[in-house]
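Re: beginner question about structure tokens

> Can someone show what the tokenized structure looks like for a real chain? I only ever see the sequence side.

Sure, here's an example I had lying around. Input first:
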Amino acid sequence: MNKILLLKIVFILLILPLFMNAQTATTQKAEDSESVIKYPQFQFKGLLQARYLESFGDNVDVTGLQHSTGEVTQSSFDIKRMRVGLNTKLSEATEVVILVNLADFKSDTKGKVLENAYGKYTFNKYIALTGGQFRPAFGIEELVPVDIIKSFDFSNQYYEFGKNGWTSFQIGASANGVFDIGKIPVSYAVSILNGNGKNQEMDNDNGKQYSTRWVFELSQKHKINIGLNGGIGKRSQEKVFALGADITSDFRLTDRFTFDLQIEYKQGTNHNLYFSLPVDGRTSNVDDYQMRGVYFLPNLRYVVDYKKLTSLELSCRYESFDNNYKVNSNVRQTFTPMISLEFGKAYLGRIEMGFEIDRYDKNIPDTSFYDDELFLIQIQLRL
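And the corresponding structure tokens:
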């Protein structure tokens, strides 16, 4: 009996490791199956920006247009944006992004509604390729969604450079990535674009516009970044260019107070204006028609975290912009003081109130080149 008992004990000791290994393998297999990321992955996004507008300008309506005669609409409710978007990750490296603005249906939809429609493949942190309709990197604002900017809307220069094919939503291809130069992180982007705006059937000429952006992170603690932008191209056989420089920073003053600042300068050919003029009403050289502008956007943020109120922000953007400073200069100075209440994280809910104050060197009746004071209240909800 003792020998039999001894044999049983030896048998159990020999076979026990096999059971333990089997159990470990089973457990590991179960853990591996749980850690497998399944594709495709979908992320739905949405944005609503509703406004109340009131113009205090001299017979200037809420769109900024001055009227010498007739009735002028100086107060109105408005839906600025009603965006719906879908981000789809087909794999770890591949994603497809779609974004539409349903508020564009309130007017002529030609060249509107569809905003983002692109695919992106990321090889590694050094290079990723993007193709389709997207916002090419050419300044600070191109990399920031409109729902988290520190003002009511993008700057005047952003929209004017968008009309000229450098910013806003364009069709083309781009490569971007990040790397280090010594201890300085550097991000870059290189784009080739049709340059004739979004939702176009095809390019309107054989010329293309080439642009690049480089950002150098000088301080990670204070988020001090220097950006350099440049672009060249051809529009209807005419050579065009654009350039710019910008700086951003974000300083934590106390546990609750932060102060961030954006400064951006741009200059370039206003070929959109040049080709819109009759031949006998313009010079023979497209380089005579150039635009330039600079803006400063300081923003003070105070973290509240009281019930549903997350933070209180105060900002005032100052911008000087001239869309034709060589031939017919008329500088537009815009002051945009604003107070913002944030509810939830990452501007999930936002109430903004303030003014857009425009001052021109020369007022031109019956145009939008006219002094104005526009009061705004904007409610924002986003997913």
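Each token stands for a local structural state, so reading them left to right follows the chain. The CA atoms of residues 261 and 298 lie 4 Å apart.
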